[in-house]
Amino acid sequence: MSEENAIPSLCDWAGGPEALRRLARAFYAKVPADPLLGPVFAGMPAGHADRVARFIAEVLEGGPLYSGQGGSHALMISKHLGRQLTEAQRRRWVSLLLETADEAGLPDDPEFRSAFVGYLEWGSRLAVLNSRAGVSAPDPVQPMPRWNWGPPGGPYRAS
């Protein structure tokens, strides 16, 4: 396949890390006023939106923007431990993020949105699972997830 016909990463197709930063900043500006999400993110540290944007950009194959600054998948998982996130909060997080994606000008073509929604569903459901009582700290060496245009593969089975 020639370079000009190469399939771009989801990060590139979204508009690059800057588009994802714009999305995260707009999203987290709305969160404090949201009745379901405001309490979850009360006390959100400065720079939270930018860290989340770097994480998402890296997952969408935009390069080591999060892990290159000391972040890891285990670190992101650990932020959810013991938080007792609800399904209603998860659904609201996804819904508000997609609403904000439209406002932030992320692509709305079916292929991108399908892959993006797939990632948000997958990631937010993992966050809920990892927020339950009794979940152990994650393995610190697990790799960062990578999300692309294709399906994620088979089902997850806890060992």
From TrEMBL:
UniProt region (Disordered), positions on chain: 140-159
Lineage, highest ranks first: Bacteria, Pseudomonadati, Pseudomonadota, Alphaproteobacteria, Caulobacterales
InterPro entries (alphabetical): Globin-like_sf, Globin/Proto, Hemoglobin_trunc
Keywords: Heme, Iron, Metal-binding, Transport
Superkingdom per UniProt: Bacteria
Protein name (record): Group II truncated hemoglobin
GO MF: heme binding; metal ion binding; oxygen binding
Pfam families tied to this protein: Bac_globin
